[in-house]
């Protein structure tokens, strides 16, 4: 799944982004998914659940990639 997410504010928490893009069903599931090391931000494994994702970053994992763009 390749998706583009339009960020309206300054940033979005990583767990909220995964929930908003339907990678995970809930915020709790997203936090667990991140803690297991399943998510990369700009190619690096990210374990911080509330890492601030900003315009221009790419979030990816097994079977998904999300590009964050300005609206």
Short account of what is shown:
This protein is of the alpha+beta class and 71 residues long.
Detailed description of the structure:
This protein is of the alpha+beta class. The chain is built from 2 helices and 7 strands, in the order E-E-H-H-E-E-E-E-E. It has helices at 14-20, 27-35, and strands at residues 2-6, 12-13, 40-41, 44-45, 52-53, 58-61, 64-69. The chain has a 5-stranded mixed beta sheet with strand order 1-7-6-3-4, with no helix packed on it. A hairpin with a 2-residue loop joins strand 6 (58-61) and strand 7 (64-69). Helix 1 packs across helix 2 (27-35). The longest helix has 9 residues, at 27-35. The chain is globular, with a radius of gyration of 11 Å.
Q: Which series of helices and strands comes N to C?
A: EEHHEEEEE
Sequence stretches where pLDDT stays below 50 over 5 or more residues: none
The main β sheet shows up as: 5 strands, mixed
- How much helix, percentage-wise, in residues? 10-25%
Terminal CA distance: 20 Å
Mean pLDDT: 97
Strand order of the largest sheet: 1-7-6-3-4
Instruction: Give the number of helices.
Output: 2
Q: Evaluate the radius of gyration.
A: 11 Å
Number of strands: 7
